[in-house]
Amino acid sequence: MLTVPLCSSLCSRLFFCSCPSSRSLPKVVKRRVNALKNLQVKCAHIEAKFYEEVHELERKYAALYQPLFDKRSDIVKAAYEPTDEECEWKADEEEELTVSKQDEMKEKAKLEEEKKDEEKEDPKGIPEFWLTVFKNVDLLSDMLQEHDEPILKHLQDIKVKFSDPGQPMSFTLEFHFEPNDFFTNTVLTKTYKMRSEPDESDPFSFDGPEIMSCTGCTIDWTKGKNVTLKTIKKKQKHKGRGTVRTVTKTVPNDSFFNFFTPPEVPENGELDEDSEAVLAADFEIGHFIRERIVPRAVLYFTGEAIEDDDDDYDEEGEEADDEEGEEEADEENDADYDPKV
């Protein structure tokens, strides 16, 4: 069964040093170590309950966030025009300017905006908001094909819905589209089922909730608009007569919309290597959309969140470099170290 932990453990970032084997311990000490392991299993079960309650809190606060996300959606799709007060934003650079300089710049900007408005029709809402978000995030832009972009221009909102109280842990991503020429659905969904309980056969591996499986939806494509399929033509030559005929064949096509038809997990849970890789990436993408994209969409639209993500990776990279440097230094200080080996 393929699962993906949702919580990263500090342990995964540590380098474990060699330690004496428990087999070398005296029998009475081993017995006490076994008692500690039993305590650790109980800790894992308490931790599982902790994450279940975190899920309940997420559901509770999702209801508090939703009115703000709904207003964001209304602004994006031009259902609501924000007031002047709602549009005021003081950038860091502006804070350093004097009031008079600010007024001068605002007046200049106002004139430029008025000139642009005269030159072209006023756009409605925030055009291509979600498409821009997707293109700005490497994890998502890697999924996009050129033929996906005209469709994603019609994407108006992405919502996260949690499972009802008392139901097994899960969340659903809802992709809301305006009416378009590509498919008749107004909402495309992807549901991820989770588990927060230690594996009885390996309780010490528990590291928080895991995504167990995911389910997509059927897209009702308009005839000739299905971008997940492509038609290819092949010429076949008859061995006896030597005549040539053209055969038309429909084959799968790379597309973001394959996201809604993930590989099915067999009842025995066994997957081939390719399907397992696809599902692992799918789980990561679903979790990223839920945790980062939906809550901070405007910052991915402007690129500010991407800069923050890059800073995080840079810091981790520097830490890794430092650790590597320390290892090299240790090797050179080792009397038995041979650089040729």
Task: Please explain how this structure is put together.
With 341 residues, this protein is α+β, with helices and mostly antiparallel strands. It folds into 2 domains: 27-81 and 101-289, Nucleosome assembly protein (Arylsulfatase, C-terminal domain), CATH 3.30.1120; 296-327. It is built from 10 helices and 7 strands. It has helices at 27-76, 84-87, 92-95, 99-119, 129-136, 138-141, 149-152, 273-293, 297-302, 304-333, and strands at 4-5, 155-162, 170-177, 187-195, 210-215, 229-237, 244-252. Strands 1-5-4-3-2 form a 5-stranded antiparallel β-sheet. The model is unreliable at 8-17 and 327-341 (pLDDT under 50). Its main location: nucleus. This is Nucleosome assembly protein 1-like 1 isoform X1. Keywords: Nucleus. One of its GO terms (cellular component) is nucleus. Residues 305-341 have a biased composition (Acidic residues).
Provide a quick synopsis of the model:
Helices cover 45% and strands 15% of the residues.
Features:
alpha+beta; five-stranded antiparallel sheet; 2 domains; 341 residues
Topology:
Elements: E1 4-5, H1 27-76, H2 84-87, H3 92-95, H4 99-119, H5 129-136, H6 138-141, H7 149-152, E2 155-162, E3 170-177, E4 187-195, E5 210-215, E6 229-237, E7 244-252, H8 273-293, H9 297-302, H10 304-333
Antiparallel strand pairs: 1-5, 2-3, 3-4, 4-5, 6-7
Keywords: Nucleus
Subcellular location: Nucleus
Organism: Xyrichtys novacula (Pearly razorfish)
